[in-house]
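<instruction>
Derive structure tokens from the sequence
<data>
Labelled lines for chain and fold
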Amino acid sequence: MPPAPPAAPPAAPTVAPPAAAPAAPPSDGPHRPPRFAVVGNPENRRVTLFADAVRAAGLPAPRVVAWTDVLRDQGAEFAPDEILRIDSPGENARVDHAWRGTDDPTRVEGSGRWYAGFTAALSGLRGGVRLDDPDDLAVLFDKRLCHAVLDAAGVPVPASPTSGPAGAPVRGWDDVRALMREHRMPRLFVKPAHGSSASGVLAVETGGAGRIRATTSVELTPDGRLFNSLKVRRYERESDLAAIVDALAPDGLHLERWLPKASQEGRAADLRVVVVAGRATHAVLRTSRSPMTNLHLGGRRGDLDAARRAVEAAGARWSDLLDVCERAAACFPRTLCVGVDLLPAVGWRGAAVGEVNAFGDLLPRLTGLPGSGAEGLDTYATQVAAVLRGAHLGRGGGAHDQYRTGTPHA
């Protein structure tokens, strides 16, 4: 069995350290400063970075409730005035075992079972003012549902025959082949519906004389098991592709047309754009020689300013690309922050949304875009500042509603 790959370290930042978020207003009688709580893995840097941002704003450290405690107690209670952030349950072996049923965190299979466990755990969180809506999270972690929501809102997305509840089922490789022919998709991405970090993703392309190949980080062992790897590899035997897809199909699969992307210095490029309270605040350009630009798979940060200049040289507007991300985030108005993976078209004219990530804000020490209102702040300080200036997600409201303590979210 291959060893578990180590977590990829973040790319070295080229920006200045963030300034502290605006200080919280002093307590004055009934007008208490906000109280934060976080459901997450206490040992994870996501929780640490958010807690640092809360303290830097002059607030008490957030109360941290471990995902392992949520599982043990079958839920957790939060006070009506606690502002609740739900953070990623990833990178914790005990949580992964509980939800996926495997002792090896590098295994690819089990994402459908993981999704069922995650959504069930969300339903056990009671009270609090939510910064992440459970219903939004359920959609964001199902690529088929998320694609349909974006498409219905007019957000540009790659064509997909599996989008939405009425999408075509994928029971195995034979269905993939049939859908490729029916929808004239000689190049496509096959994605686990509930996957993340490119786990299980295959970039499939066909050629003449029946040639076919897939680029993926999946390692297929001789006994048919699938493992995540830090090495991107190619499979050119259709029997190997069929074995991988047939093993993943029970967890749910989503198919998308493979859109040609813009490039920078000969490398395919896309953008991760963080949207906080409805506004695009942070962005990184990711480049790669493979179809997957994830930094842990060999992708690297590109030159964001050069990309902006390329957009403008093509006669387009940089603000139009950011607007696409904001429109995607607006589909989830009860969730304060999302990370949008934007696919710029060849020539930097236009763009489509490839993914919307519920936990897409892990960009350590990256400060806000000029004119975003988040200059000098990292993604976590920006979210804290949004709450302090009045953005929250109360009952039935969106990301720009006025913050009110004592208003639980149902």
Observations:
- The two ends are 45 Å apart (CA to CA).
- Residues 1-29, 393-410 have pLDDT under 50 and may be disordered.
- Residues 71 and 121 are 7 Å apart (CA to CA).
- Residues 111-123 form the longest helix (13 residues).
